[in-house]
Specification:
Blueprint: H1 2-23, H2 33-54, E1 58-61, E2 72-75, H3 77-103, H4 112-128, H5 132-150, H6 160-188, H7 203-220, H8 229-235, H9 240-248, H10 250-263, H11 268-289, H12 295-322, H13 326-361, H14 372-375, H15 377-390, H16 397-409, H17 418-449, H18 466-484, H19 486-496, H20 503-506, E3 510-512, E4 515-516, H21 528-549, H22 578-588, H23 590-593, E5 596-601, H24 605-609, E6 615-620, H25 624-644, H26 652-673
Antiparallel strand pairs: 1-2, 3-4, 5-6
């Protein structure tokens, strides 16, 4: 049954690729065909994932299907868990993308649908791969799909740098995985992932561990490999951004989880690096999200922030594994998985809703999107649900997952070593700061997009059809409903995480059937299920009390002249802009953002002194990783490339010498690996 469902799913996605390449986008009625086939394929993957999660793990040997070694497909509980989650999102995102393709008059040329279907197929194959070659082959297919989606408009002179940067960092992450896999395969003598579990500890084991974590972290967006996200995601067309950020990026999460099960105990230096880099990534991501003036870049930088939170939770699990504390490992793994689920759903909701808002207005500029949530109610509500979740506000799934991450980080006193305790405490402080900044960043966006005054000119485009509305509604409802049934979700996650930690350890998070705790009893508790009931009751009670005590005056409309400031009722140049809302953040975090200010008189200095002149005041922020790492590195590589050109006109004996030296180095490395 599972094999038949998987075969049907891959067949649907393959047909979707062929349909897009054959039909293109010239005929409006044929545009949604690839996405409808993607929806059918995702539905088949969803059924296979649920069936595998309920049953026992299975492995299918397909011989030398791909030409190297034994091609193996493994459907254990961990793969089934991620397949179920990402396939469910694939159904919703495919529905939204199909509706978008019909209503978008300027759909990009053929290739979008093919890349979308190839992306979903590559994600599924990465989750199911049981051998190194299948895994790496699917990883490269995913990288190429990202490149095509991010660079679909590069022939028009747009988004070229975004596509190349996306491809470049994808290749860097793939190279890290390739080197790590070669080290493990050379020591074990097999390309099967399961055989690497027996690689003994030591320098080679630790080096391979660091390489694979770096490779997966690059796809997820950890500093310093996060530079492609703020450019690559906005460059992709429409809801395909949701497929990239909400679905495909989670293969990085799966990879780290899978290799924790394979490689076991990590080195201490890797644990400390993961904790600190996760916390730094979270702060940098939300700080830059809070000062962006374009909606797509706000959501993209939010992906960087949430990648940091997920990796920090994973760092807690690594600390537990390194310290032989299985309950702490379960706490960190559960917290990180809960946040990965929350981020995947909320980010899919945000990017699908953003596509509708941007299409209707013709831009993603926050100033132009004021009040568009009132014009497109389905997109507005979905956007609000996703934003509240990523802000970590109750009663959403983001609130529950961030609570678990913070509670897991508070267990640093249970660790034996001072270095691990300090790293965990530092990461906890950074994540706490991130949570506060996330509220500020998303309240700003919600206030402008959802609660702003309805624009007089609605702009082109319309709300999604019934298929798109169903997808939007499912995503919005999931942001709230899953929080209410978190105890049931934890039981499912416990089964899915059983290849890494015992399910009984994960279910320690259930203090009672509807009350949660961070796996350690007596530390703290939370009941998101009762919170969903208590919050509306509390709001109604406070409102009724206010009306009663004010003797009806609470409901009266009081009209007064608006104060000439940012208050409600002031429109035009005197009102707060997206830039103005973010200006305090630019000042407070000027050291993080690298804020630069410049004042230029537009008239003579004498007029300015007399109060009759105008001054242009410009504030800029500097991306530190790009400014201090990417640009100097690019300059060095370009200089080396210029010098390397001289080798093209060299002597034949010099080339033979180079080849001989390279061969000797390769033989020495191979001999060292087989000792």
């Amino acid at each position: 049954m599972i094999a038949a469902l998987l075969l049907a799913a891959f067949s649907c996605l393959g047909a979707g690729v062929l349909a897009d390449l054959a039909a293109g986008t010239s005929r409006r009625l044929l545009r949604p065909a690839p996405y409808v086939l993607a929806l059918a394929g995702s539905a088949a993957f969803l059924a296979a994932g649920i069936e595998a999660l309920r049953g026992i793990g299975r492995t299918y040997r397909l011989g030398s299907l791909l030409g190297i070694g034994v091609t193996s497909v493994r459907v254990d509980h961990l793969a089934a868990l991620f397949l179920t989650l990402l396939a469910a999102l694939g159904v919703a995102v495919s529905a939204c993308t199909a509706a978008w393709s019909v209503r978008t008059p300027a759909l990009p040329r053929r290739g979008v649908g093919a890349a979308f279907c190839a992306l979903l197929a590559a994600v599924a194959e990465i989750l199911l791969a049981g051998d190194a070659f299948s895994f790496l082959f699917s990883w490269e297919v995913l990288t190429i799909s990202f490149y095509v989606l991010a660079g679909i408009r590069r022939r028009e002179g747009r988004e070229g740098p975004a596509a190349w940067l996306t491809l470049g960092i994808g290749k860097v992450s793939g190279a890290c995985l390739l080197l790590g896999f070669l080290l493990l395969a050379g020591r074990s003598g097999s390309f099967l992932l399961a055989s690497w579990h027996h690689v003994p500890g030591g320098g080679l084991h630790d080096a391979a561990y660091g390489l694979v974590v770096a490779g997966f972290a690059g796809k997820l967006g950890i500093v310093p490999l996060q530079g492609w996200m703020p450019l690559g995601y906005p460059a992709a067309p429409g809801p395909t951004r949701a497929a990239m950020a909400g679905i495909a990026a989670n293969v990085g999460v799966y990879g780290m989880w899978r290799f924790l099960a394979i490689l076991g105990r990590p080195p201490i230096w890797l644990v400390i690096a993961v904790l600190l880099l996760g916390g730094i990534t979270a702060v940098l991501g939300i700080a830059f999200a809070g000062v962006q003036t374009r909606l797509a870049r706000v959501v993209a930088y939010s992906s960087v922030e949430n990648a940091g939170i997920i990796v920090t939770g994973f760092g807690v699990a690594l600390a537990g594994a390194a310290s032989a504390a299985p309950l702490l490992e379960a706490a960190g793994l559960l917290a990180a998985t809960l946040h990965a689920v929350a981020h995947a759903i909320a980010k899919s909701a945000l990017f699908t809703a953003t596509a509708s808002l941007e299409d209707a207005r013709g831009t993603d500029d926050l100033e132009r999107l004021r009040g568009m949530g009132r014009v497109l109610p389905f997109s507005g509500v979905t956007f609000a649900a996703g934003a509240l979740s990523l802000a970590g506000l109750p009663p959403t799934i983001g609130f529950v997952s961030e609570w678990f991450v913070l509670e897991a980080l508070m267990q640093e006193f249970r660790l034996p070593g001072l270095a691990l305790r300090l790293a965990m405490a530092g990461a906890g402080a950074l994540i706490a700061l991130t949570s506060g900044l996330a509220v500020l960043a998303f309240v700003r966006v919600l206030g402008l997009v959802l609660l702003g005054r309805r624009p007089d000119d609605v702009g082109r485009g319309a709300e999604a059809g019934w298929v798109g509305r169903a997808g939007l509604g499912a995503l919005a409802l999931s942001c709230i409903a899953i929080a209410a049934i978190t105890p049931l979700e934890i039981r499912v996650l416990a089964r899915g995480l059983s290849p890494i930690v015992s399910a009984s350890l994960v279910t320690h998070a259930l203090s009672s059937p509807w009350v949660l705790q961070p796996t350690y009893p007596g530390f703290s508790i939370l009941s998101p299920s009762w919170l969903l009931v208590a919050m509306p009751v509390a709001v109604l009670g406070v409102t009724a009390m206010a009306v009663a005590l004010s003797r009806g005056r609470y409901l009266r409309v009081r009209r007064v002249p608006a104060w000439h400031s940012a208050s409600r009722g002031v429109e035009g140049p005197a009102s707060y802009s997206a830039f103005g809302f973010a200006n305090p953040l630019r000042h407070v975090l000027s050291n993080v953002l690298g804020t630069r200010r410049e004042a230029t008189p537009l008239e003579s200095v004498a007029d300015v002194v007399r109060g009759r002149g105008q001054i242009r005041y410009v504030t800029r922020v500097i991306e530190p990783v790009e400014t201090y790492l990417y640009r100097p590195l690019a300059a060095v590589l370009l200089r080396l490339a210029e010098r390397a050109k001289r080798l093209q006109s060299g002597r034949l004996e010099a080339y033979v010498s180079y080849m001989l030296v390279a061969l000797l180095v390769a033989l020495a490395v191979a001999a060292g690996m087989h000792r």
